[in-house]
Target: 23S rRNA (Uracil(1939)-C(5))-methyltransferase RlmD
Amino acid sequence: MADNNLLTVEIERMGQAGDGVGRMPDGRLIFIPGGLPGELVRVRVIETRKNFARGALVSAKRTVPTRVAPVCPIFGQCGGCAFQHWDYGAELAYKENRVREALTRIAQVNGDLVEAIRGCPDPYGYRNKGQFPFGGTRGKVRLGLYRRGTHEVIGAAHCAIQDPWVNELLQVAEDLVNRFRIPPYDETQRSGILRHLLIRSSRMEQKLLALLVVTEPHPELASLAEAIMAAVPRVAGVGMNVQPAPTNRVLGERTVCLAGQDSLIDSILGLRFRMSYTSFFQVNPGQVEVLYRAALNFLPGGPSEVWDLYSGVGTLAALAAREARWVRALEVNPEAVHDARENFALNHLTNVGVEVGRVEDVIDAWVKRAADPPGTVIVDPPRAGLDGRVVERLNVLKPGRIIYISCNPDTWARDVGRLSPHFQLMQAIPVDMFPRTDHVEVASWLARSS
Model:
């Protein structure tokens, strides 16, 4: 009997989520995980909507030379990697073209301003932070990753894109948890203790921090923390974060150290930065130096004032302070501001200050108080890009240049277009911060129009 849900589809291009994109017989787009541009595949239609459909790849009638064997046994199941089945050079070409196409289509700006993408020397083993959910039952706990699009935990004793030191701890943590028989959290029953294990590594110190995210304190957690440190000497500290709420938000408000130290130090471009259990830090330490070096090269020569409007823990503000006369930073998260001030002190920087506030709420007052516009404004906003009020104020302020770092080519291109009456894009450099995923970063600068 014929399966009416089976189709033969030619993959025309790669979609932004890492799915191959083809067309149904009626012309609707169909998104196919695992399909590569140029391939002819048999697909089972699993979801249909008014304007598109989703399909599952059944077999390939024609493959392309850029298809490679994934290195991970659960590739295609977990929601982490999108491109392990694609040659890394092809992945880089796709990401570079994605930035160029967004600039041309959305901003109506010449795509030739986009330079060649800066790829990662090794597309595996680069992440210095891992977040692993607990699943299973008491005594039979699984520690791993979520199945794509679900909260089902797939056991994973090794993640190909994680730092080998992170995997070193991941490989023994599951056994230790089962030895102490602490129950995992069951979100359907809203019962159990263990929710997530967060691991981060310091390239400079060659040490690890581990954080157990739990619904409530448990009498065996301190002993488990000691056992983790004994089993993996590279672990410098183990903490506990309490998240009692039935929510997808991983971290709760309360974090305490159970054993060892509560932070590590890592370096970026010669400066040192503190990483606590929960503080933000870029997850690819090698490529963040490529990204930030590009951004710093966009600064004008000579001392001037710099504003960093989405400063996080102050990494780029601190680096810019080595070149600028004064750096004024702004960050919405009070914990990140605390970390930023510690990082400035750690590096003996006295020409940089940071305030707490939302950019869209504070920038108007900053602009009104400014006797002269700063030489440079640095923006590294969330994926949604710049709020319209921020764009409006920047167009009024007219700093000498804007350095724009983005994790979303579409909103970046939109903002380049919105700034274009007063600023002209001069240079854009894509950087592959997250190899084997569909994410790409852009470092760019815009000059004030004469």
Notes: The first helix runs from residue 88 to 107.
